[in-house]
């Protein structure tokens, strides 16, 4: 069967292909493709690559971009570890209040991010409950530093890893682990050679989703960041500043720069995913 | 007739642009084309202008900025009663609040405001220059530069003024933490910046150096005035908050006068939050009369008393409570003309690569 060849022929004789394809394409166009296309068209045709480069190629913009992607990477890496652990606990153990914890994982999805930002700032500000304690005992300031941005991004990204890994853990049979143990593998070896490889593709997907979500996060971060230029100013804030100046071209230029970097990052993650799938065989 | 044939038959009646040529031959491999046309049609109808509002039930939309919520809630109720007392049916008055610049952008992008009441003349200028909605001479159409009330910038310090902050030159001392929002995103912050600039100029200091020193003492740049107030009041950060006078009094009223003191500096600014009609959205004569009256009545003694009660400095004190007038101390207030008007000050200080950007570039 030449299923791979490019054609718009209906794949089965059953009716409905044209309609569903049409609805899909229309919806995708209206919501995603056309807005993205307009953004890129406006940047390259309306403004020009040279003009965009001049907007982006400044220390302040590079600092903001570096901060946004660095903080998003750190927060997503943290979520990768912590999220897998949380998912593991939620699937494998029974404890009082388990369903409550399970439901709480979704809160960052539901809560307006500004609310999260204000709540986190209240806790981690130098006068807040956690903030005062950490400042006194460790001499660290959390809110209004880069650490604060990490915490806000960890908050918004957490559910992605948990929710992608959870169903996969549910599918792992205990028999596999028992088999591994009876064949003489240590607990650590069972973990690293039997369990984690099976989780890797899902965990990477969750990581990529969390990363994508936190790179563009604005609402919660501006409350906790301090927003000092070159220090704690995130790239999305620079875009908002450009819009405040009615400088749509400048905003588009920074947006396209973020889009390009995010695209490159997601591409790398996808390549790692393909590599890990190949290594594991089809999962 | 199959669904597909029905669809194709309907598509033939469409303007030719929307219908691809292949539609009559309909080879099976091209079946997605009519669906593309449906998509184009859906987009086209979404972009078509909405029918004009009905004249019978009058709804007035006032697009305003953040700190005026309380003021306009009270004024809207008063004005609706007044309008009914003039023998008219009761109008519905809606107010939209947000950052002044963002609100101006929303109107430019098509938010159907009937009147705008923003923080800065520059924001209404932006609507006037970028669209045909507002005439260029809007500011001369109402008294007092179209500003029914004014305000100024004051210092809010902690109770008893422990750091002894009296004037602008105290803000550049080592170890003083100053809380002010980012002038790039906040209208109020631009006034804070300009007031400091004016003080330096009045006292023979190098203004750029002086303002730069103040910003070196700023640990957090919030994006809006309310955010800075929260940082100072709730988070307990900083020694002094540069605030709208009305915000400072509101903070005192909400949190008790035993927590903060208001310090009035020797030099400040005359902030004129202006109002304007949006004739481009007032095709209907009745609606236009309502909107015109809405702005004109802001200057009536009763409305001025409401503004004074909400800690704005209004012009007409004849109907106001004595307490609401006595509250405001005399202060040397520089107008925006001192800084060359918004058309000059905005790009010079706050534009891309302007003096504010240079302050942070130099670090």
What is shown here, in short?
The complex is a heterodimer of chains A (283) and B (363). Chain A has 13 helices and no strands. With 283 residues, chain A is mainly α.
Describe the overall structure.
The complex is a heterodimer of chains A (283) and B (363). Chain A has helices at residues 17-47, 49-56, 59-92, 98-104, 107-110, 113-124, 129-138, 146-171, 174-182, 187-215, 221-225, 235-244, 248-280. Chain A has a single domain, classed as Orthogonal Bundle (MetI-like fold). The relative contact order of chain A is 0.14. Chain A is 77% helix and 0% strand. In chain A, α1 crosses α13 (248-280) and α10 packs antiparallel against α13 (248-280). Chain A has 283 residues and is an all-alpha fold. Chain B is α/β, with parallel strands linked by helices and 363 residues long. Chain B has three domains: 3-47, no CATH class; 59-149 and 273-326, Periplasmic binding protein-like II (D-Maltodextrin-Binding Protein, domain 2, 3-Layer(aba) Sandwich); 152-270 and 330-361, 3-Layer(aba) Sandwich (D-Maltodextrin-Binding Protein, domain 2). Helix content of chain B is 42%, strand content 12%. A four-stranded mixed sheet of chain B has the order 2-1-3-10. In chain B, α3 (69-85) links the parallel β1 and β2. In chain B, α4 (100-108) packs parallel to α5 (121-130), α7 packs across α8 and α8 (207-216) crosses α15. The radius of gyration of chain B is 26 Å and the shape is globular. The chains are: A mainly alpha (283), B alpha/beta (363). The interface between A and B is large, with 44 and 44 residues.
């Amino acid at each position: 069967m030449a299923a791979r060849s490019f054609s718009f022929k209906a794949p089965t004789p059953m009716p409905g292909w044209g309609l569903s394809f049409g609805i899909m394409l229309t919806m995708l166009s209206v919501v995603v493709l056309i807005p993205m296309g307009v953004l890129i068209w406006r940047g390259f045709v309306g403004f020009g690559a040279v003009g965009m480069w001049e907007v982006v190629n400044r220390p302040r913009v590079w600092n903001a971009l570096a901060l946004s992607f660095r903080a998003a990477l750190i927060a997503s890496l943290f979520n990768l570890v912590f999220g897998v652990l949380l998912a593991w606990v939620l699937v494998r153990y029974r404890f009082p209040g388990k369903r409550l914890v399970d439901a709480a994982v979704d809160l960052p999805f539901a809560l307006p991010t500004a609310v999260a930002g204000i709540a986190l700032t209240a806790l981690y500000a130098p006068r807040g409950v956690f903030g005062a304690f950490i400042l006194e005992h460790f001499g660290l300031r959390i809110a209004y530093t880069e650490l604060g941005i990490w915490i806000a991004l960890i908050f918004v990204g957490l559910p992605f890893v948990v929710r992608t890994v959870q169903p996969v853990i549910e599918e792992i049979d205990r028999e596999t682990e028992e088999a591994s143990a009876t064949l003489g593998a240590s607990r650590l070896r069972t973990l690293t050679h039997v369990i984690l490889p099976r989780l890797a593709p899902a965990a990477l997907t969750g990581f990529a989703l969390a990363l994508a979500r936190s790179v563009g996060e604005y609402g919660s971060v501006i409350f906790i960041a301090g927003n000092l230029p070159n220090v704690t100013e995130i790239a999305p804030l620079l875009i908002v500043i450009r819009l405040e100046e009615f400088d749509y071209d400048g905003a588009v230029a920074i947006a396209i720069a973020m889009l390009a970097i995010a695209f490159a990052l997601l591409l790398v993650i996808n390549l790692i995913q393909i590599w890990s799938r190949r290594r594991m065989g089809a999962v | 007739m199959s669904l597909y044939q029905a669809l194709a038959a309907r598509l033939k009646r469409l303007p030719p642009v929307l219908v691809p040529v292949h539609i009559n031959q309909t080879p099976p491999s091209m079946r997605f084309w009519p669906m593309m046309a449906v998509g184009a049609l859906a987009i086209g109808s979404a972009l078509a202008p909405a029918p004009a509002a009905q004249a019978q039930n009058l709804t007035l939309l006032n697009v305003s900025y953040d700190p005026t919520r309380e003021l306009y809630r009270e004024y809207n109720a008063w004005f609706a009663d007044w309008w009914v007392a003039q023998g008219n049916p009761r109008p519905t008055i809606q107010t939209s609040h947000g950052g002044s610049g963002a609100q101006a952008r929303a109107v430019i992008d098509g938010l159907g405001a009937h009147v705008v009441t923003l923080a800065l003349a520059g924001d209404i200028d932006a609507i006037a220059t970028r669209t045909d909605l507002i005439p260029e001479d809007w500011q001369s159409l109402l008294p007092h530069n179209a500003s029914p009330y004014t305000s100024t910038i004051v210092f809010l310090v902690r109770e008893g003024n422990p750091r002894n902050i009296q004037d602008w030159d105290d803000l550049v001392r080592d170890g003083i933490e100053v809380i002010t929002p980012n002038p790039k995103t906040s209208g109020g912050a631009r006034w804070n910046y300009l007031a400091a600039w004016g003080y330096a100029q009045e006292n023979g200091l190098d203004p750029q150096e002086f303002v730069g020193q103040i910003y070196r003492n700023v640990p957090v740049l919030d994006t809006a005035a309310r955010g800075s107030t929260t940082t100072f009041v709730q988070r307990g950060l900083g020694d002094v908050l540069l605030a709208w006078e009305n915000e400072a009094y509101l903070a005192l009223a909400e949190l008790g006068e035993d927590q903060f003191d208001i310090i009035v500096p020797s030099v400040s600014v005359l902030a004129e939050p202006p109002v304007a009609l949006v004739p481009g959205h007032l095709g209907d004569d009745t609606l236009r009369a309502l909107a015109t009256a809405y702005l004109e009545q802001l200057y009536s003694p009763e409305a001025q008393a409401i503004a004074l009660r909400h800690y704005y400095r209004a012009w007409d004190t004849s109907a106001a409570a004595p307490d609401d007038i006595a509250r405001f101390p005399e202060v040397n207030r520089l107008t925006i003309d001192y800084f060359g008007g918004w058309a000059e000050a905005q790009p010079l200080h706050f534009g891309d690569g302007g003096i504010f950007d240079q302050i942070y570039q130099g670090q």
